[in-house]
Write a structure and sequence with these properties.
The protein starts with a helix and ends with a strand. The longest helix is centred in the first third of the chain and has 21 residues, at about 40-60. By secondary structure, it is an alpha+beta fold. About 35% of the residues lie in helices and about 35% in strands. Helix 2 packs across helix 3. The strands form two sheets. Strands 1, 3, 4, 5 and 6 form a five-stranded mixed beta sheet that branches. A three-stranded antiparallel beta sheet has the order 2-8-7. It contains four helices and eight strands; from the N terminus they run αβαβαββββαββ.
């Protein structure tokens, strides 16, 4: 008889424990892709790559910048923590555990998002190109937030982030740079241009 009375208390504890946990409600599956490491060193190494490219361009007039998946993933992870435009109303990052893959001509951004007790995997495909003025052209091809609606202003926030990364990283050279091509393949984004 004593064991039966303890059963409702056990069930109540079990229910409360399960409610305290996040419930994953799906979204795009990217578990078959390799995990991209995130580090402050990788994010900072973008500046080293830009410096190298600028020094080489001083000789030839042609600038070529190669950015890797760990560099871009680390940069995005840092920005998501500090940029209010990439955060939800409760100041949590719009995307947690970001992973950026540079494959098949696209920047593929994956991660997780949270709304209340629910989490979902997300996938954002970004096409990168060059406009007629030699500036980066960024187009969000698709945004899959699982069962959640894509956040308002997502396209603008991602476009602004990529544009700022471009101008912020290149600094004063960016104003005198005309991009000729952006190629994305095999884990590397190669930006080629000419110094005016």
């Amino acid at each position: 008889m004593r064991k039966i009375r303890g059963l409702p208390l056990f069930l109540l504890i079990l229910v409360l424990t399960s409610l305290a946990c996040m419930i994953n409600v799906g979204g795009p599956d990217y578990s078959s892709l390799p995990t991209i490491p995130v580090s402050a060193e990788a994010a900072a190494s973008i500046q080293d790559e830009i410096r190298r490219a600028i020094e080489a361009a001083a000789q030839t007039g042609v600038i070529t910048v190669n950015l890797t998946e760990p560099q871009i993933t680390s940069y995005l992870a840092s920005r998501l923590q500090t940029d209010p435009s990439l955060q939800q109303s409760d100041n949590k990052p719009l995307i947690t555990e970001p992973q950026v893959y540079l494959r098949d001509g696209q920047m593929q951004i994956y991660g997780k998002t949270q709304q209340g007790l629910f989490t979902a995997n997300i996938g954002i495909l970004v096409n990168m190109g060059v406009d007629a003025n030699g500036q980066p052209q960024i187009e969000v091809a698709s945004a899959d937030f699982g069962p959640f609606p894509a956040p308002e202003g997502l396209k603008d926030a991602i476009t602004a982030m990529v544009r700022e990364a471009y101008t912020g990283s290149l600094g004063p050279v960016a104003t005198g740079l005309r991009i000729e091509s952006i190629a994305i393949a095999n884990g590397v984004m190669t930006v080629t241009g000419r110094v005016r």
